[in-house]
Amino acid sequence: MEKREVDVVIVGGGKGCRELLVLLEEYEPKHLHLVILGVADINPNAPGYLYAKRKGYFVTTDFRELFKRFPDVDLVIELTGSDEVLDEIFKTKPPKTKVIDHLGARLFWEVIAILQEKNLYERRLQQLEGIKLNIDIIAHLAHEIRNPLLVIGGLCKKISKLKEIDPKIKTYINAIIQEVNRLENLMNRLTFISKPLQPNLKLCSLNNLVKKVVEDFKKNLPPNITIELILEEEIPEIFLDEELIAQALYELLENAKEAMEKTGGQILVKTKICYDEVAIMVKDEGPGMEKSVLEKATMPFFTTKPQGTGFGLFFVQKVVQAHGGTLHILSEPGEGTTVVTELPVRMFYPIPPV
């Protein structure tokens, strides 16, 4: 079926208008092609008005100008919430122009939000089905290896304490103990990989959380590194595990700091909202990563640092996925690295443990 093109104007340029414009950019109705022609609001500083202006749409402080400029407009979406404005629209609109009031528009994007979250949930289930077998194998191996390691380590420690032991043998025993400790640490990491991460989700302010972590992190920055924080004011409260998200953000900041320890520079931390997702961006001015390194950056045990564990970005990704979000890493040699954490604004479906 061929899509019908529908010309649309919006009356009311507040936050709801901005959300709707972003939604229509990201979601294409199945049988309609909605073309936004213009936005009207009495406040030229309203967020939807400003967003429409940036996007190149016609904007005006008098909605009647919309009808003069677009006399053949098909649809008016009224978002002011004012019955008086709605009545005036019906009086002045072109005869064939249809009207959706703010309640109808709200229902429209609530339905779309539910469908998007349902798709997210289904994709997450598919991912989990693909990795469940590997996780079970890792958990079993870690359990089977840890027990004999504990026995070997315990016996070696007892032997090393014997007074009559030959010094040369004691050296060998201590070397065995060191390797046992290393393997025990490895088993702990394998256990972490296989253990489901179940965040304790609570409604909280992402901006306040990010601000607190950044302020705490600033205290330990060397003098050659600065940090800039830009918070988008319109970000709503969302469901998240504050402790896990704070740990993940701290890990990203630590990575950014380490990347610039020799050269110095600025770390940029930014929050942003895009309809049904909020994002935390951490950008550094370090050396960046080669493509081959970037492809492995979130793999457990992979590290380019001499004393690295290879668990930093893996942990961050696991935390983000446990919140139903996604992690994006953008980097090129000589251009620094940008890590973007995207989290859902709403979560109607429980996210399975990661």
From TrEMBL:
InterPro entries: HATPase_C_sf (IPR036890), HATPase_dom (IPR003594), His_kinase_dom (IPR005467), HisK_dim/P_dom (IPR003661), HisK_dim/P_sf (IPR036097), NAD(P)-bd_dom_sf (IPR036291), Sig_transdc_His_kin-like_C (IPR004358). GO terms for molecular function: ATP binding; phosphorelay sensor kinase activity. Its EC number is 2.7.13.3. It catalyses: ATP + protein L-histidine = ADP + protein N-phospho-L-histidine. Keywords: ATP-binding, Kinase, Nucleotide-binding, Phosphoprotein, Transferase, Two-component regulatory system. Residues 140-347 form the Histidine kinase domain. It is an enzyme of class 2 (transferase). Pfam families: HATPase_c, HisKA. This is histidine kinase. It comes from Thermodesulfatator autotrophicus.
